[in-house]
Specification:
Blueprint: E1 26-30, H1 41-50, E2 54-59, E3 70-77, E4 81-82, E5 85-86, E6 101-107, E7 109-115, E8 121-127, E9 131-134, E10 139-144, E11 150-157, H2 165-168, E12 174-179, E13 182-187
Antiparallel strand pairs: 1-2, 2-3, 3-11, 4-5, 6-9, 6-11, 7-8, 7-10, 12-13
């Protein structure tokens, strides 16, 4: 049952440090649900032999998918790597492709990987205290490059929907990996 009254005003608490709420539950994504999204699936399987780490969680407030409403919440993306590839969200296009989204970084650091259906890619840093605008037509995925949780507030048009399937088959064209010099964007080996 939806706890929030979308046809009247309501408030939701979000902790500015950790992104959690006392009023709203999170949806959790574990490594076992994302194994194929990392390019080094062997490294993922080795981790899963020992544990199934929580990669990220986000608040799903149950906003109706109707024009005029705004979906919003927080995402908490934990630090970690599979091989040398940083933990990331699944990422998605919007079902209504011409939908933008805004992310505000509450804590942590990372990068937003974006690409459109024509294959154009962009990468933008996610920094505490900064908002990031994801333009229409771009799939987007958050990547945690730090040692602490990456906590972001997000909002988008509620009727936009999520299309995870298009990007799941081969993943994004670009990925973020750790090198000696730090985080580096490289071509995804699954696209070669």
């Amino acid at each position: 049952m939806n706890r929030f009254q979308w046809d009247s005003s309501f408030s939701v608490d979000f902790n500015l440090q950790n992104g959690f709420s006392e009023k709203a539950e999170t949806t959790k994504r574990y490594l076992s649900q994302m194994t194929e999204m990392f390019y080094d699936t062997n490294a993922a399987e080795k981790i899963l032999e020992q544990e199934d780490p929580l990669v990220y969680e986000f608040h799903e407030l149950g906003c109706p998918m109707r024009e005029g409403d705004l979906a919003f919440g927080t995402t908490i993306l934990y630090p970690g790597k599979v091989g040398n590839e940083y933990f990331m969200t699944k990422g998605h296009f919007h079902t209504i492709l011409d939908t933008a989204e805004v992310y505000y970084t509450l804590d942590g650091e990372g990068c937003m990987i974006m690409e459109n259906p024509e294959g154009e890619t962009m990468e933008m840093p996610l920094k505490k205290g900064e908002a990031l605008y994801v333009p229409r037509r771009y799939a987007h995925r958050s990547v945690n490059t730090g040692d602490t949780p990456l906590v972001m507030f997000f909002t988008f048009a509620a009727n936009a929907g999520h299309d995870y399937g298009t990007i799941e088959t081969k993943g994004y064209r670009k990925i973020l990996v750790e090198k000696e010099c730090g985080p580096v964007v490289i071509d995804n080996p699954k696209w070669s």
